[in-house]
Design goal:
Blueprint lengths: L17 H14 L7 H8 L5 H6 L2 H21 L7 H18 L1 H11 L9 H13 L4 H6 L1 H23 L5 H18 L7
Helix pairs in contact: 1-2, 1-4, 4-5, 4-6, 4-7, 5-7, 5-10, 6-9, 7-9, 9-10
Length: 203
């Protein structure tokens, strides 16, 4: 009579890719207030082997950067779902509102992520590039010709907007800026940057 294998203590890796499972597990731990979770805690929460988070990401810092990238992607998707205003300044204000409100939706998670991506890790993150791309989307949506003509200028303005938004978020994540003041403060900073720029953006 053939012997039967005992059931595995770990669930089978089906459905979402392994990287997605690890990121989802990190979000759950952060939502529960466990910002100082260990990689062993993470592996247990994700239902994977201890080595899997290291194999997939390399470090906890890289996982936090992946969470930041996920948030920027969500902000961009939400912006694309809107009908953008005609003026560039108003488009930027809309993008900032969407981004800031998204940060407030999961404030506990996002404050923890901000804390991590604000410190140096073993490898540079991509938050600046992702944020710059978001503001570039708002500055010149669907206007390929204009973007090509003023690519360097628009990229510079988008980068300034990334700096401004990150600065506002840093005060919020440190508890110096109240939740109810985040959206308007971020919009005010963005409008000031756009109005003070000599770069002409489409619209």
């Amino acid at each position: 009579m053939p012997s039967r294998k005992p059931p595995s203590s770990k669930p089978a890796l089906r459905g979402a890719p392994v990287r997605q499972r690890v990121i989802d597990a990190a979000e759950r731990l952060l939502k529960d207030g466990k910002a100082e979770f260990s990689m062993r805690d993470l592996a247990s929460e994700a239902g994977v082997s201890f080595a899997t988070p290291f194999n997939q990401f390399g470090s906890k810092a890289a996982i936090m950067h992946a969470l930041a990238a996920r948030r920027i992607e969500l902000m961009a998707a939400r912006y694309r779902a809107q009908t953008p205003p005609a003026q560039a300044e108003d488009r930027v204000a809309l993008a900032v509102r969407i981004a800031a409100e998204g940060m407030l939706e999961e404030a506990v998670i996002n404050r923890a992520v901000m804390g991590w991506i604000g410190t140096a890790g073993p490898a540079p993150g991509a938050a600046l590039a992702g944020s710059t791309a978001l503001w570039l989307l708002a500055l010149a949506p669907g206007n390929a010709a204009s973007v090509e003509e003023t690519d360097a200028g628009l990229a510079m303005l988008a980068r300034r907007l990334a700096f401004g938004f990150r600065g506002t978020l840093s005060f919020w994540s440190a508890g110096e800026l109240a939740d109810e003041d985040l959206v308007q403060s971020a919009i005010d900073v963005a409008r000031t940057i756009v109005r003070g720029s000599s770069i002409r953006s489409p619209g």
